[in-house]
Design a protein that fits this description.
By secondary structure, this protein is an alpha+beta fold. It has four helices and nine strands; from the N terminus they run H-H-E-E-E-E-E-H-E-E-H-E-E.
């Protein structure tokens, strides 16, 4: 979608919500909608802090999630993102669906997993292109995000929740 069509989709989603009558978005409904949004999202935005304390965002493939509390990724151990998380584990994850104009922000911490069992659990065929030595490649790691709280947004409503 181009930016103009995204804006239009958002405006249409908000208009539908107003026409249907805005009902308060309770925590239970926000969590349910958040779970559905995360489940259908393959790529999420991951936020870290650089050495100067400024936020950095990067799109990453979600490998797996356990509810809203844990999200698993894979990346290069030598990457800038891993270095940032080793210095400061504070992290955020953001997911957006332009069709429903909804978004989910999760705030928590990222731990870099490098143990053999975790790496084997998430290894996928074809990743040799990124990690030539395979599952035992020292440049392959599995970042694990653990959420502490979240915020779900849809149309014209926000709902905060603790995890």
């Amino acid at each position: 979608m181009n930016p103009a069509s995204l804006r239009q989709a958002g405006a249409e989603a908000a208009k539908r919500l107003v026409e249907e009558g805005l009902k308060p978005l309770g925590e239970k409904e926000a969590v349910e909608k958040s779970l559905a949004l995360l489940a259908r999202s393959e790529v999420v935005m991951v936020g870290s802090n650089d050495g100067s304390g400024y936020p950095n965002m990067k799109a990453m493939f979600k490998i797996e999630s356990e509810g809203l509390s844990t999200i698993w990724f894979s990346t290069n151990t030598s990457s800038r993102r891993v270095a940032q998380f080793k210095k400061d584990p504070k992290a955020s994850v953001y997911v957006f669906d332009p069709a429903s104009f909804s978004g989910l922000l999760l705030v928590g911490e990222m731990e870099i997993m490098q143990d053999r069992a975790t790496k084997r659990r998430f290894w996928q065929e074809g990743w040799e292109a990124y990690y030539p030595l395979g599952v035992t490649d020292e440049d392959y790691c599995v970042p694990r995000f653990t959420a502490k709280r979240g915020n779900f947004y849809q149309g014209l409503q926000n709902s905060d929740f603790e995890l």
